[in-house]
Amino acid sequence: MAVAGIAGTPQLPLEQLKFAEEAAKRRHPDGAQQFQELHFSDSDRLCSLVDDIFADHAALDKRPLPIASGGHTKFLIMGAGMGGILNAIKLIQAGFKQDDIVLIEVGGGIGGTWYWNRYPGLHCDVESYCYLPMLEETGYVPSCKYTSAVEIRNYLEQLVEKFGLEGRILYRTQVSSLQWDEDTKSWKIDMTMGHGEGGKEKSTVWVNADIAILAGGIFPHPHVPKVPGLVGFRGEMFHTSRWDYRVTGGTSEDVFPEMTRLEGKRVGYVGTGATAIQAIPELAKYAKELYVFQRTPSQVNPRGQKPTDPVEWHERIASGPGWQKSRMENLAQHISRNLPEGTVNMVGDEWSRLPAYCAIIGSERFTSLTPDKIHECLAQLQTWDAPHNAAARARVASLVNDTATAEKLTPWYPTWCKRPTFSDTYLQTFNRPNVHLVDTDGKGIHQITPTSIIANGQEYPIDILILSTGYRSPAYASGDPSARLGVEILGRDGVRMSDKWSAKGACTLHGVFTNGFPNLFFHGGAQASATANVNHTLEVQNTHIAAIISRFHTPPSGKGDGEKKVVIEPSVEAEEAWAMRCLAGASMFSSLAVCTPGYITSEGDALKYGSQEEMVKKGRGSIWAGGLVPFERVLEGWRAEGFEGVVGGEA
């Protein structure tokens, strides 16, 4: 629960003053309303930017469906990205059958973010030995330290095949609502399914499920700024979440595609976040002129990519049972600063050496923070961050030849305010004569004409417009799962989940289920935990969800006992007690108050406070303040002690 207006520390007055000045330039009264989600745009052209251009619709039309309209399944998992796939595997490992499970996927293939994101040069920014799930179980050896999107997508397809889930996925299907039926003790799920040419033909279907699991990801909705003239641009235009190789040339199956259709073209690229860091160096190889429009520069750290060494893999990485869990936890604990000085750093990358990123993911060093100690916490974080931050700024000056360009590429904000980026090529790209940085000094672009972008009062003629403008914040609607996914959820007595969240703030037990919505589980950040490695958070949450389900719903033994109905939900008392525990640690995240606006703060909306009641509502949604590994230990202890606070059993 952040407190606005915290002053800088006496030891770092000039740096903190610069941070404050730069943040002020970027604050906008409209906050997140500066943007529009493409899925919900009134413009047909903007809506078309999120069409599925990767699906083989003819092949999908021939696939047998895992469930027919009006059918019934034990488990319905909404999403076939990494979270949904992992959830299904955890259920199978708990003893449930593949035929008990149906996954609903809006795309034409599996992978979630790795299905949609196919921009050139894309690799995971977390070490692949920690990021790719279930390496120990599969024996798979990633090709390099930071795996490409192509390899990740192929690996996930192998996982689906290995665990017999290939025929259990309903593709091109969007869930619109879930309604709890108290009489049947099941969820009625209404959906729209695409088919035919381009998947444009739509039919409404519905199914019943005993247990529903929301695994739609944290960034389901790409957005673009509300810039005058955007719809009227006459050239080719696309969002980086749907990279259009028909425009650029190349193919999404190549890590470094040959984008020969850009030759002779003037390309306007809007945005300089984590996507841009990887895509811009590749674009620069082919475009005649590349104009990069920047609102806020990224902090760009060294990457250190290298191929996997077989000897190192067998002797130091995959060296014994439990190696991947140990490695994931070692990385998370280093980022949270939860380990004693001198503890072995297994990963040894830049993530593990960020001294103050714990400000955004939690640390045991600050779990007992009281409001009167907030200033001391911030001072400590700033002190830890100062050397790293200064080195990151100096790196820009050392790699970019033009002094004026280097100054514009220099980030001025604490490291924790935006997701740090990692590249050994991005900054150097601005030394190329065909690459032009258009820094808007925090204002963003002003207007788009049919043939150009206007920024800083100057017109830049372009042929192709690429929008690298990100996604709606995961903190939208206080982390309400139904709002985040754009699904109406009606629980017991017809209560809307959005109404419950609006009235009370986040209401969960351990961030994965909520009272009044029986047999419904979800992923998310509110009242759960986080780390840089998103797969680690999914591993923890999916393990927990599968454990709760199997504790109260014994898998069928083959003796006719598989059809017993169960109802699982937390008690009101248990979820309120959990909310208070999360609220008690919320003071640590006051460090966000000094941040420049971005998705982490919902463009500054998360720092706007009204009444004391509103502050408490926001504070309830805080993540676990101690970091992901201590959070996991709490969950393990809770399970060992008997799942206290769960109302569950046969209906």
What attributes does this structure have?
eight-stranded mixed β-sheet, disordered N terminus, FAD/NAD(P)-binding domain, five-stranded parallel β-sheet, 22 strands, 16% strand, alpha/beta, globular, oxidoreductase, 651 residues
CATH architecture of the domain at 63-220 and 473-570 and 621-650: 3-Layer(bba) Sandwich
| CATH level-3 fold name of the domain at 63-220 and 473-570 and 621-650 | FAD/NAD(P)-binding domain
Return the average pLDDT rounded to an integer.
Answer: 94
The poorly predicted ranges are 1-11
Name of the CATH superfamily of the domain at 63-220 and 473-570 and 621-650:
FAD/NAD(P)-binding domain
Largest sheet, in brief, is: 8 strands, mixed
Q: Classify the secondary structure makeup into a structural class.
A: alpha/beta
Bin the strand percentage: 15-25%
Cα(first) to Cα(last) distance is: 39 Å
Q: Write down how many β-strands occur, each being a DSSP E stretch of 2 or more residues.
A: 22
Helix coverage percent: 25-40%
Write down the overall geometry: globular
CATH class of the domain at 63-220 and 473-570 and 621-650, anyone? Alpha Beta
How many whole angstroms does the radius of gyration measure?
Answer: 24 Å
Count of separate DSSP helical elements: 22
Kindly describe this structure.
This protein has 651 residues and is of the alpha/beta class. The protein has a domain at 63-220 and 473-570 and 621-650: FAD/NAD(P)-binding domain (3-Layer(bba) Sandwich). Helices cover 31% and strands 16% of the residues. The chain has 22 helices and 22 strands. The strands form six sheets. Strands 2, 3, 4, 5, 6, 7, 19 and 20 form an eight-stranded mixed beta sheet that branches. A five-stranded parallel beta sheet has the order 9-18-10-11-14, with helices on one face. Helix 4 (82-93) runs parallel beside helix 19 and helix 19 (534-552) runs parallel beside helix 22. The radius of gyration is 24 Å and the shape is globular.
